[in-house]
Amino acid sequence: MALFKQKALWIGLIAVFIVLAVFGVAMMGSVLGAKPKDLPVALVIEDKAVSLPNGKSLDIGAMVQEKLLANKELPIAWHLVSTEAEAKQGLDQEEYYGAFVLPADLSAGIASLMSDNPKPATVRIIANEGMNVQASSAVKQILGQIARGISGEMSQQVLGMVSQNSDVNVIPVGMAKALLAPFQVQENTVHPIGTNNASGNAPGMLTQIMWIGSLVVSIFLMLASQKALAFGGRRFGVLLTQAATGLVFVILTSGFLVWMAKAWYGMSLADASGTWLTLMLGGAAFFLLQSALLSWLGLPAMPVLVLLMFFSLPVINIAPEFLPSATHDWLYEWTPFRFVAGELRHSMYFTDVSVSPSSNITVLWCIAAVSLVVKLASSFRKVKVRTVEVSHTETA
Fold first, then answer.
1. pLDDT in tens, 35-87
2. Which end of the chain is more exposed for a tag (fewer CB within 10 A), N or C?
3. Does residue 237 share a domain with residue 109?
């Protein structure tokens, strides 16, 4: 019974519930309500209208465009583009998760189903896997359902037109087969993620490891700096040396991380040097941000840094269009993790694109620069520094 009279027991119990609540919100609360909405997809209508034997015009492209744009239940934000080449450019620049391409001969192919020599056209579905596997898979599935719906509707319309033709008593075998599939559907994937990339989550994993590595460097350099100050070192000089030393460590650890990912785990890195440069910049921004907080707050900054990591990790591998509004606006928009993971995704999966379309690099440079200024500014605050006195014994 004496155990239950101890305050530490009840304080520990309360602490457990607080920790579970905080980390539950961090790991689950921000992502459990995730569902797709307004996924940007390119819609390419290259179809040309054709004239039917009865004098009417058939324009499948215009009909599909009108129906798709009027359907507000689809979790897709359509972006009309003129050509497939233009859509490909948008996919390369990470503007779209996919594309739905209606070819120029779609109406002509549908019209040919009523002849003895049907020539079905090919509708193309393109998934931008490197941009986000979860979102591109959802887009591919939705576009596949749309294609099947259009195919069924076209089959019914063509069958109705054939049945109205009194001259047709028997449907040829070729026409019958074509009616079952009035057009072909071809699915393509651009910017594939490669092998051993954790289903496209490798950028988030590397970001997490780099954050932890930078944090270890920050803590040990802070402890070493405190000892240097205790021996009488000048605070500004110590902090400047600490920052320079930390950046050297970041260069080495980021290179080791890239080598470990390739050599140990067989991770497919199409641009290993670009991945290394991105990790170096991200690690530098992480280290300087962590070091700045530690310089001002000391070890009490640790809970802030740990909570930032746990709150950010669940969201950086999820497409922003899947996140609840509160999580997107209050966490995803400003967490430094997303800028590193986003730039890693570009360097790892978009190697055939020469220039990054995003502002991730600029943001990371800004984080690093501001953090360095804040860190060095801490040298001007008044702190009590414990100096170490060394006694000298004189000998005769």
1. 899 999 999 999 999 988 777 888 999 999 999 999 999 999 999 999 999 99
2. C
3. no
pLDDT digits (tens, 9 = 90+) for 188-221: 999 999 889 999 999 999 999 999 999 999 999 9
Same-domain pairing of 134 and 244: no
Report d(CA 49, CA 83) in Å as an integer: 16
CA angle 107, 109, 110 (to 5 degrees): 65
Asked whether residue 253 is assigned to any structural domain, the reply reads: yes
The torsion defined by the Cα of 141, 143, 148 and 151, in degrees rounded to 10, comes to -170
Expressed as residue numbers, the domain containing 316 is 198-380
Task: Verify that 247 and 315 share a domain, yes or no.
Answer: yes
Q: What is the CATH number of the domain that holds 105?
A: 3.40.1710.10
User: Do 350 and 213 have their domain in common?
Assistant: yes
Tokens 């239950």 found at: 4
DSSP string over 91-151: HHTT--SEEEEE-TTHHHHHHGGGSSS---EEEEEEEETTT-HHHHHHHHHHHHHHHHHHH
| Mean pLDDT of the residues in the chain | 87
